[in-house]
Each structure stands twice: as C-alpha cells, then as structure tokens.
Amino acid sequence: MTIEDFFDLRIATIAVGEAPPDDAHIVRIEDPGPALVARLTAEGWFYKPKWVTYAIAVPPSLDEYVSRTFSSRQRNKPRKLLRDVPKRWRLTVEPMGTSFDAFRDLYLRTVVAKPRGRDRVAEHGAFGRGWLGFYLWEGDAMIAGVLVHAMSRHLSVAYGAFDAQRRRELDVEHFLLMQVLQRSIDLGHRTMSLGVDTNRYGHHLSLRLAPYKLRIGFTPMPHEPGGRELALFRRFEPFEEGLFFYGYSGDGLVGHHFARGEPDLRPFRHHNAPPVVVHDIG
Predict the structure, then answer these.
(1) Under the phi-then-psi rule, with left for phi > 0, alpha for psi from -120 to 50, and beta for the rest, what region is 53?
(2) Cross-strand pairs, 46
(3) 3-state secondary structure of 42
(4) Are 219 and 56 in contact (CB under 8 A)?
(5) Beta 46-49 vs 154-162: how paired, if at all?
(6) Per-residue pLDDT tens for 23-57?
(7) Tell me, what's the pLDDT at 18?
(8) What are the boundaries of each domain within the chain?
(9) CA-CA distance, 22 to 3, in Å (whole number)?
(10) Does CATH number 3.55.10.10 belong to domain 59-189?
(11) What three-state secondary structure class fits 134?
C-alpha cells in the first residue's frame, strides 16, 4: 500500500485484497484485469483512466471552427475575441527564451499562489526544443500565456497562466487557444490537444474546467499512456463543490458528477460531450 497526501486529499493505492486505511478519501487499484473490473464495479467502484486529454479535429479555418462549434446565437463571442483582443493587447509567438521568465512569474502569481495551486511547470523540468510560448502583452507586462509542445503531428497546449482581471474582461484563454488552432491549420495538422490532466475535478482542478473545454469544442478521451485504475471514493470533505471525473462505459466514456443536491448539467451538454451520471453525496 502507498499513501499520497495531495494537499488535504488522502489517496491510498492498494493491492488486490488489501484492506484500505479508514481515513483514505480515495482508494485505487492500478491497471486491474477484466475479472476484477467486473467484480468491483458491481460493488460500487469506478473503472477510469488515470489521466484524460481533450482534443479537436483541426478545421480548414477559424471561421469554420466557430461555425462548427457554436450555435448561431453563440458565434459572436469567439468572433468578438478575434476582433477585440488584438486591439487591446500584443500577441507574440516565441520559442522558449527570455519571455519564459515573464510567463513563469505570471504562472506563480495566478496558478501556484492559489490555495491548492501546484507548480507543474517546475515539476516538468527543462523545456527543450519543440516548445513555443503564445503570449499576450500589455506594454512590457505579460497578461496571458500558454506553453505549447510542438510535436511532429500535432500541437499540445500544456500550461497556461492568465491575469484574472483581463480574463474577466475578455476570454484571453480562448483567444490564445484559437491562435494555437490557427497555427495547427497553417501546419496542416489533423488534431490539436490541451495536454493531460488528472481526471479529478473539484479539488485542485476546478469543477468548471471540464465544461469550459467541452464548450469550446474539445472532446475528452483517455490518455492511455497514463494507465487505468479502479477507484472508490469514500469521503468527500476536500471536494467542497463536488467531484467530477470520467469513467469507462462500454467503448467510451461517461462523466460522473458527485454533488450535494441536483447540479446544473447544462454546461456539460454539448455535441462533443459524453453523458453525465449524477451521484448525490448529501
């Protein structure tokens, strides 16, 4: 058995037949076989990918992306971003270099400084060739940025940092993602992704993150190199707003939303979204 203390979340990874500790919030068994999956899912466990990614088929143009992704009533929002953001702020696309220090400072202030912020950039280590920064500037100050891994066949947005005030004024995150999508179009790529996350929303990842990615047209899928697990969620104190994750259902995914009361599922209902099952945690 191994115990991981993730801020105030206690995760126990156990072997088959091993009793978990009473104080664990989550119990998991890594890479289980089919017989164990069938038995434990019948007992209330969930079979799920450890990590998920979000991907989109690269369209012929950004206009096609907007038409394909948004209803006629919603299309003006992304088009407004494409018009208005360049009028207010300066965009640069750069290899990793001197501007990384400005991104690092913005990331520390807007991500790591949060109560459950985690310094994923530091955990990544050195960024070699094949990494790009897409940055927005107000004068000499960076107000938004994403770090993108330029792989041979697609671009993957791995890290982002956004000034809260500018983000409230205009969705600078979506603007930058559309710039990465435009780069994918120019390169002739077929897909673009948003990196990987821990498939556990409501603790260190916001419950609003998954609906946001769905709304802007990205489809969730398992990140299979990360492996699979059986998970049992036993205590929900650290999940103050509830818990959401994707689990396997047949050949696809289903969303599991653990909520206090009846959650509003409208943000999850998009053409690219799997169905969502609600579990009441009181």
Answers:
(1) beta
(2) 231
(3) coil
(4) yes
(5) unpaired
(6) 999 999 999 999 999 999 999 999 999 999 999 99
(7) 94
(8) 2-50+224-280, 59-189
(9) 12
(10) no
(11) strand
